[in-house]
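Fold it.
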Amino acid sequence: MPLNHEKLSAAAQEMMSGSVVPAAEKTVKVERTGSLKLRTARLEVDGREYQMIEQNPEKPSRWGKLAREGHQVVQVRDVELGKYVAAVVDGKVREYGRLRRGDHAE
């Protein structure tokens, strides 16, 4: 099932700018993780549950580098699969594995 980019993008932006995220028929509270106090929220989008987590800027990954540079980066984890399925960077959803399945252009 393809990801709903519009809803994930809106949820990521709400999570990074406020204390709640509107989701389906309810509102989800934005919480903070352990010592780094990164934002996180669990919500349902089109029948699937996702955990959205603010990117740790201290990580050496390209996502961490973008966060250090001031970009809003949110990782999206499919709770049922237990896998990260996308990153939302400044409102744009980038699905993991998308190029591997289709075009190999970079």
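Strands lie at 20-23, 26-29, 31-32, 39-45, 48-54, 73-78, 83-89, 92-95.
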